[in-house]
Amino acid sequence: MTIKTRRQKRNIKKKKLLISIGFIPIMLISAVLIYGYLQYKSAFESSVKESVIDRTQIEFNPVKSTDDKHNVLLLGIDARNEEKSRTDTIMIAQYDGKTKSTKIISIMRDSYVEIPDYGYNKINAAHAFGGVELLRKTLKLNFDVDVHYYAIVDFNSFSKVVDVAFPDGIEIDIEKEMSKGINSTLFAGTHKLNGDQLLDYVRFRQDAESDFGRVRRQQDVLKVLTSEFSEINNLVKLPQILGTITPHIKTNMENSLLFSIGPSILFENKNDIESIRIPLEGTYTDERYENAGAVLGLDIEENKNAMQDFFN
To answer: Where are the domains of the chain?
Structure first.
């Protein structure tokens, strides 16, 4: 056997070895993708059976974002409510694609505002009168804020996702005993809460703070959850988490945008989410009207400027 022939055989063996080694990462990636898909599919099929979200198309005619900032109208509904109900929670979340940062404005549902074609009423009545599109127009008219997307969230999904992502619970410092108007009794002190208990915590409003305390707790819990999600071990749970929550959300966001924003908010953003509440302290009065009952009379101009400054 010539030296050239032996060299050729060695080169062939090296090529085969390199090809074999090259297949290993491909096989590993394929296995991870298949595992993730199966986790997503299993969670989705289990969760979709319990979802009450109406999947039919709804009217929504937003303007397109002209920069990398995406404003998403977040609406929380009770599982017993129909689509055009008065929403329990109204938030606007802004995701900045350049800075990978998130800001949230919580709007008090009793805020007394002008609703196009309906006159003045509580802001959550806009959704009952005309769905997401009328609420979008109401936000634009009163605060000159454009929302580009919406996400209607069934509260039922909140507790399920918490239990999937954090089977040992979420540690919360509860400021007082809470039981009235919720399904469980929460005792003062630091406790680990499961999904149902955490949902009770953010929905409690039977005290002197009323809705103001509820909104504050919602923002606090969002920050805690974002911090907890940033732990690396939750990455492997992402397919299961998405499969669990997807059937309980109705949104017009494209999957490509949803799947890019979601992980960025949950896993990449290490800083606290910035948040404010509307109305600001000192910019409202307690009032009562025959058509709406007890409301918050807003200094519209001051709150509009605050929202513009916060987002821009």
So the answer is: 69-311
Nearest partner of 228 among 155, 171, 156, 158, judged by Cα: 171
- Give the residues across from 298 on adjacent strands: 284
**E-assigned strand segments in 100-258:** 101-107, 111-115, 119-122, 149-154, 170-174, 189-193, 249-251
* Closest-CA residue to 79 (of 158, 140, 11): 158
CATH number listed for the domain at residues 69-311:
3.40.630.190
Structure tokens at 161: 């996702």
Q: Single out the residue of 217, 214, 165 nearest to residue 194, CA to CA.
A: 165
pLDDT in tens, the chain (312 residues): 555 566 655 665 555 555 555 555 555 555 545 645 455 566 556 665 665 566 567 889 998 888 889 999 988 876 554 445 667 789 999 988 888 888 999 999 999 999 999 999 999 999 989 999 999 999 999 999 999 999 888 776 778 878 887 889 999 999 999 999 899 999 999 999 999 999 999 889 888 888 889 889 988 888 888 777 666 455 666 777 777 777 777 888 876 666 666 655 555 554 567 899 999 999 999 999 999 999 999 999 999 999 999 998
Show Cβ contacts of residue 59 under 8 Å, excluding neighbours closer than 6 positions.
131, 132, 133
